[in-house]
Specification:
- There is one protein chain.
- This protein has three domains: 112 residues, Alpha-Beta Plaits (2-Layer Sandwich), CATH 3.30.70.1050; 96 residues, Chitinase A, domain 3, CATH 3.10.50.40; 172 residues, Orthogonal Bundle (Trigger factor, domain 2).
- The chain is 45% helix and 24% strand.
- The strands form four sheets. Strands 7, 8, 9, 10 and 11 form a five-stranded antiparallel beta sheet that branches. Strands 1-2-4-3 form a four-stranded antiparallel beta sheet.
- The protein is extended.
- The C terminus is likely disordered.
Length: 445
């Protein structure tokens, strides 16, 4: 087999593989030996008919497809191995037959490859650096959550219901004066402010007194699961039967010790601040790295093949699917609820996928250009650190490690070095924020 490669349009490579008459003949023979048991020919036991007899009955080209598949499958991987320094394939090939005769066969594979990345600048730029800090209000909110988890429910009879109360209600819903399925219940417990009912319902119940009946006017959302109720105005006749409030415990050292294990309120606050600040620090790093990549992306050109984008969309959807699974939901059920197809859902991820792929290409290119590496000493130090964190002997810990863990450690070291290099070689100006979530890129390359 002889082959040639030629760069094509839109980050593709054309691989041409030529097979001579003998190779083509041998491929047909192998296809015959593999598949002869599938053919029945009068006068022969199944699987015993000669090749030329099967061809005379079923047609000359009966084994061509399997032979062509075998030629490509047996040789394509070898070609890629020999060309691994010239290009990196990132998707499935589009295969066609260019020439076909008894004298031989020519197969052509057009494959998407990792694109050339042209970065005009990644040094000497002015780039925003983020720093998220924890506010006292966040510490207070954590303490309030501890109080709420340990609150005692008490019957309320001397006031109207308020947000946070648990109310017991009867209700009957109607649309255009007609009751609808699922719109009626007696003795239903509802926590006001939980968002369990459609928008507007709970807000109108707030302020009702025990024994009071009130018409609550709402409009069903346009994306409501029941087709007949989408966007329809409805009236619920609501009767308030009972109110339960929450009696919050007093925040004392004794309460905090029982509820959290911390010896005092101040100790709990300190631990909480440390935990929240660690989270904020991680967000700061992520946001700053994202800022750096966005700045470099503005100076970068790369003709990204669709195969890379589709693969990244697959990754993003898979992550979302895992999140749904943790909530006991299936992706298809989620799509059915939204009334969207999987194709429409995929389109929502396209821009994020393009951005992620571009970030990965930039990272890979700069690492290559700057020859950023992880030394064996650095990898070893990281392994020692991990072993200590789980109180294990280093050699014992290594025995239980998967080879991929070493690759991950090496990659992580390189990524840290890369962004340290980029921060040192650009003018980073500080922007401080209160602790908040931010969008991050995917750390892979």
């Amino acid at each position: 087999m002889k082959y040639t490669t030629k760069a094509g349009e839109k980050s593709t490579v054309k691989i041409t593989m030529k097979f001579d008459a003998e190779e083509w003949k041998n491929a047909q023979t192998q296809a015959y030996l593999k598949n002869r048991g599938k053919f029945t020919v009068n006068g022969f036991r199944k699987g015993k008919a000669p090749k030329n007899v099967i061809e005379s009955v079923y047609g000359k080209g009966v084994f061509y497809e399997d032979a062509l598949n075998a030629l490509f499958g047996d040789n394509y991987g070898d070609v890629l191995d020999k060309c691994e320094k010239k290009f990196t394939v990132v998707g499935d090939p589009d295969v066609s037959v260019e020439d076909f005769s008894e004298e031989g066969v020519t197969l052509v594979a057009v494959v998407p490859v990792k694109p050339e990345v042209k970065i005009s600048s990644y040094k000497g730029m002015k780039i925003k650096k983020y720093e998220y800090t924890v506010q006292d209000a966040e510490i207070d909110a954590e303490i309030a959550r501890v109080q709420d988890r340990n609150a005692r429910k008490v019957d309320v009879t001397d006031r109207a219901c308020a947000l946070g109360d648990i109310v017991n209600i009867d209700f009957v819903g109607t649309v255009d004066g007609v009751k609808f399925d699922g719109g009626e219940a007696k003795g239903f417990d509802l926590t006001l402010g939980s968002g369990q009912f459609i928008p507007g319902f709970e807000d109108q119940v707030v302020g009702m007194n025990i024994g009071e009946t009130k018409d609550v006017n709402v409009t069903f959302p346009e994306n409501y699961q029941a087709e007949a109720l989408k966007g329809k105005p409805a009236v619920f006749a609501v009767t308030l039967n009972a109110i339960q409030g929450k009696e919050l415990p007093e925040v004392t050292d004794e309460f905090i010790k029982d509820a959290t294990g911390s010896a005092t309120v101040e100790e709990y606050k300190a631990k909480t601040r440390e935990r929240l600040q660690a989270q904020a620090d991680r967000r700061s790093v992520d946001a700053t790295e994202n800022s750096i990549l966005e700045a470099i992306s503005a100076n970068t050109e790369a003709e990204i093949p669709q195969a890379m984008i589709e693969r990244e969309i697959d990754n993003l959807i898979q992550k979302f699917e895992y999140q749904l699974m943790y909530q006991g939901l299936k992706l298809q059920d989620y799509l059915d609820f939204l009334k969207v197809t999987k194709e429409e859902f995929r389109k929502n991820y396209e821009e994020s996928a393009k951005k992620n792929v571009m970030s990965q290409l930039i990272i890979s290119q700069i690492i290559k250009d700057e020859k950023i590496e992880a030394t064996e000493e650095e990898v070893e130090a990281k392994v020692v650190e991990q072993a200590k964190s789980v109180d294990k002997d280093v050699e014992e810990y290594k025995k239980g490690m998967d080879p991929r863990q070493f690759d991950y450690i090496r990659s992580d070291i390189i990524i840290v070095k890369l962004f340290k290099f980029l921060q040192e070689n650009n003018e980073m100006y500080m922007t401080k924020y209160r602790s908040a979530k931010c969008k991050i890129w995917k750390k892979t390359f």
